[in-house]
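Researcher: Following up on the earlier apo prediction. This time include the ligand. It's zinc ion, with the SMILES given after the sequence.
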Amino acid sequence: MPPIYRLHAARRSATRRQRNEIVALAGESVSATISARTPTGMIVTPSRPPHASLRAVDLVELDLDGQRRGRCWLEPSTEWPLHAAIYRARGDIEAIVHAHGPRPSAASMAQALRVTAMLGAGAAVRIAQHGVIAVGPTLRDAFEVARGVERRHVV
Ligand SMILES: [Zn+2]
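Model: Understood. Below is the ligand-bound prediction.
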């Protein structure tokens, strides 16, 4: 196989692995918005729970401007701008887990940039009355960070 095709095949299977991992994590945290970076942008959980019945094909693939890639026509999480802003600002991270209550608010680009600034070079930021945004080099890392921050704040 010419190297360029090998590269494409590797990327395709990476995306498949990411999809399966997001589905598994969504089952553990049903109200979280979860995303992973892809070669062309990101895959993100759709806007409609329940995540308990989420399938790999339900994940929405977007570029970082919010243009659709791939074949899923579900609506992406309303908070996709937040994820996109963080991927732009943080070349070092591959995954984002954003955990909060069952009613996510839509993120405007201005809010997204504010949260991204609050996150800085850190692994997580907690926004009062909203939730936790955790980032990491892998989905599992981001998920564990989010869970740790949530636990510390449960009274
Ligand atoms: Zn949120």
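Model: The CA atoms of residues 7 and 55 lie 26 Å apart.
Researcher: Noted. I'll compare it with the apo version next.
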